[in-house]
Structures are given as C-alpha cells and as structure tokens.
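User: Last request for today: this protein with oxa(dethia)-CoA, please.
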Amino acid sequence: MSLHGVKIVGVGHYAPARVVTNHDLETWLDTSDEWITTRTGMKPRHWASEEEATSDLATDAASAALVHAGLSAQEVDCVIVATVTPDYDFPATACQVASKLGALDKPAFDIAIACSGFIYGLTVASGLIRSGVYRRVMLIGAESLSKILDKDDRSTAILFGDGAGAVILERSEEDSFLAADLGADGSRPELLYAQGSGARKPLDHAALDAKVHLIHMQGPETFKLAVTKMVESTDAVLGKAKLVKADVTFLIPHQANKRIIDAMARYLDVPADKVVVNIAEYGNTSAASIPMALSETVRAGIVKPGDIIIFVAFGGGLSWGAVAWRWAA
Ligand code: UT7
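Assistant: Here's the final one, the structure of the complex with oxa(dethia)-CoA:
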C-alpha cells in the first residue's frame, strides 16, 4: 500500500545533430544498407560530436521535459540518470546534469543497468514518490554509446546510437504505477559488456590495445534471451497489475532490433499498431530508447488519460524488466 500516487507530468527527448546512415557505415565496414535494414530495422542513428558527452544530451532532454511540464529545475526534488556511458567513472553523470539544469543542491545519482536502465529507474523513482520521500523526480535515460563502440567491428558498430529521453514524475492522487517486474542474471556478463576501467581488471596499455574498453556482444545468443525475457516479463507485469493483453494501449519496448520487437509482439499477441517502434530513426540507444519513444508518442498527442502502457526492456547484466503504467491527465 503506497502513501501517494505518481504520474508523469512532462517528457522530452534529444538526439545529437550528427546523423550516421547505413551508407555512411558502408564506407569503412564490410556491411550493407540491405543487411542492416533486414537484420535490424535500423536506418540512421545519431552519434555525439567530440565535444558532446552524455550529460549534455541528458540536459537537453531534461530541459525539454521541464518546458513541457511548465516547471523550473529548482522545482524538481531529485535527478536520476540511467546510463552506462557516464561522463566519468565518477562522479555520477546526474550530478553534472543537475548542475547544468540549475537544480542546485538537489540529490542526484546514476543507475547503471544498461538497456534496462529506464525500467529500473522508473521503478525506483516511482517508489521514492509513492513512499513520500520526494514530490518530484526527474528521470533521464541517456547514452553516448558511440564513444564506446569499436567502429571496426561490424557486428556492433552498426547497432548503437546516442540520445536521451527524460520524464518528470510527480506526486498525484491518481496512481499511474500499476506494477513492476524486474530481473537480473550476472552469471554471464560477457554476453554483452564493456570491461572498461572496471576494478576487475584495471585498464593498462595491453587492455586498451585489446579494446576491452569497448562494447562486446554475442549477438545471436543475446537475441534469443531478449525475446524470451521480454515476453516473460511482460506476462508477469500484466499478471501483477491484474491486466490482460487486450487492456494494453501501447507496448513501448527497448529498441534493440526490429526482429526482436516483432517476435516479442507475436508471442504476446499484441497487434503491431499498439507497438511503438522508432528504431529506424535512432538505432539502439540503450537506456535512452524507451523514454525517447515515450516522449515522441506523448508529444504526438496520441496518449490519452486511462491508456495502459507497458514498458519492457532487456540488456546487459543480463538484466530485464517491465512496468505497467496507466497514463494520467
Ligand atoms: O540492447 C541490448 C540487447 N541487444 C540485443 O538484444 C541485440 C541482439 N542481437 C541482435 O540483434 C543480432 O544478433 C545482431 C543484429 C547483432 C546480428 O544479427 P544476426 O542475424 O544474429 O547475425 P549473426 O551474428 O548470426 O551473423 C550472421 C552473418 C555472419 O556471417 P556468416 O558467418 O554467416 O558468413 C556475420 O558475420 O552476418 C554477418 N554479419 C554481418 N554482415 C554484414 C554480422 N554483422 C554484419 C554486418 N553486415 N553488420
């Protein structure tokens, strides 16, 4: 039993100006627009410039959400950034974002759970509001994955893009948060990881030469697990929220591969017109993909009070999760 309800009062998103098309990738990789389009559904993706880092993308998305909500940064009680491409190992990117926004002296922290970051973040942020700790929380999913891509590895370089999506959550009489289902399995991190400067094996010249700081993924196995876990998590969250599939107005999945999304929707028996897909514009933006898709959908004016939205993701960890949300006025 929660003390309060929570609702979303503002959304915003941002993608860097630089657009990288499949044809651009063809110029230095042994790949083709045809392969990328048919195997992933991806067309252009956006890559940050040398000067841009994750906190810059996050700040732009958050500023758009503040304008959308008609709020100032000082009216936000806490800033959370979901990212695995932080500006620095520490301090948290959220601290940079809060300062840039002008949310001065407010608590700020990161959540690092890869593509599931927005789902975990939405659960944590909703919990902070529903339990009475804070009245308003800014939650941002933001990534500069291009900075940790091996641009010569065609199996990953074509997949990832940069961007940010933000939501402002606020205490409310109505409760939008219906249920969450979260999970993780850390037994095989190497399926999708960047060893980076982690303490397991501190970075040295040999490690840098071996590109351990860049993304490595075992694609086909990750693909199968992504479909299975996102289907299971969606079923579980519907059960917890006492909903049936026919109640779902929008399914907003993590955008990792159009074929993953299609397979999941098929297993779940959710019609294509209820599934939000923007992978052809942005590629896989990890923790940013769901809030970017939500922001686009809300700003298109098609989300109505009472609509049931299922957010669902799978990614590095391995990690997965789903949240059932009833849109409030
Ligand atoms: O965001 C977190 C979760 N992420 C995911 O869930 C991603 C999951 N994985 C995937 O989306 C897919 O596995 C990929 C898109 C990464 C790869 O697609 P795939 O259909 O699983 O291809 P594959 O890895 O089985 O490779 C098939 C063939 C191979 O060639 P051979 O051995 O059959 O001659 C690859 O070398 O395609 C080749 N290939 C490429 N060819 C052209 C791999 N990447 C490329 C490429 N262009 N970019």
